[in-house]
Amino acid sequence: MAKPLRVLIIEDSENDALLLLRELKRSGYDPTYERVYAAADLISALEKQSWDIIIADFVMPQFSGLEALKMIRSKELDVPVIIMSGKISDETAVTAMKAGASDYIMKDNLIRLGPAIERELYETSMRIKSEKASTALREREDELRSLKKVNQLKDEFIGLVSHELRTPLTVILGALSTVMTEGDKISRREIKQLIGDAYFEAENLSDILANLLELARAQANRLQITEEPVNIRDAIEATIGRMTEQTKTHQFIIDCDDSIVITADRVRIQRIIHNLLDNAAKYSDPGTKIEVFTRLNGGEVLIGVKDMGIGIPAELQGKLFEPFQRLEQPNIKATGTGLGLIVCRRLVEAHGGRMWVESQPGEGSTFQFTLPLSGLGSYRAKS
Ligand code: ADP
After folding, report:
1. Quick one: which of 237, 247, 307, 362 has the fewest CB in 10 Å?
2. How many Å apart are CA 99 and CA 73, to the nearest integer?
3. CATH code of the domain covering residue 27
4. What is the distance between the alpha carbons of residues 311 and 317, in angstroms, rounded to a whole number?
5. Which residues of the chain have pLDDT under 50?
6. Taking the model in full, what pTM does it have?
7. Ligand 1 centroid distance, CA of 48 (Å)
8. From the CB of 329, is ligand 1 less than 6 Å away?
9. Quick one: 277 and 354 in the same domain?
């Protein structure tokens, strides 16, 4: 059975083209073809469809085979081009091959055409296969590299979290063991202090675990948002009320209307505000102010936490909301897990809101997020 062949013929002589087609059929091909002999027609033929082979006359009145070759190669098409000529000098043949021709054939020796096409088609298919194989290999290598990177981040993260869990646990165990073994020898005030320390560290532990659980749920797409009326000012006050240590070191200011009520998940909203306030206190000097403000904007409320702390350089801000990322900032001793902000962003997004930061090194940071006033109902309708 004749093999189908899509052939573009660049030839001004209709007779020569017919001879060529006859030779193709004789060699066992069933050609579908287009004949062009001007640059503009060549471009549109190349753009219209793909070709198995291009056969170009070398000398034409309006256009030369060499020009045609240059145009084809400039389009970076992987299609073999066979040059045909009535007569061709060795020198011209070399020029054509250098310009990207696959072969050249004399018009009086058309018998060579069939085998030349067969060889070119075979070589092209091998080349395409090998290119596909190297692209696939490159993609696998990229995937492997990014998997290794994620794996390394996870290892670092596990190390960091274990360390962050162990530190409060050591304080808790130490305080409780002192109270148990020396409780009758030390004063009530010292006992109260030790229990207070243990309580504070237990709260730290509980925060780390809560963030870990939230991130695990978010990564598995299993964040279930409860919808209930939440008075934003009450949520802010309740969150600050539980931050006993931070309120001793920093001055908290609330700029929020007490009538803003939204439909949202109260526990999650308090977690977001808590994480932001905790960071604001961690990354700013004792004695400085931390402001929580709200603004109503259309169907949403904007909540912001502004500190007067170390700030974040613009080039690091993009990394802030990636999982397990802590920023390398000089002279910063604050410890952490790199969980707080990613959890905030996931919780905000699960409510249908957005979160971002504005910050200048040395001048402080303002983390802001929006929440739809009427809960997920309006978010689901939009998305
Ligand atoms: P953690 O504080 O536990 O390291 P986060 O996800 O809460 O993790 O924060 C990620 C990083 O972002 C922090 O390590 C810190 O470098 C930077 N960052 C967060 N909040 C602030 C802030 N208010 N001011 C300056 N840097 C901050």
Report:
1. 362
2. 8
3. 3.40.50.2300
4. 10
5. 381-383
6. 0.66
7. 55
8. yes
9. yes
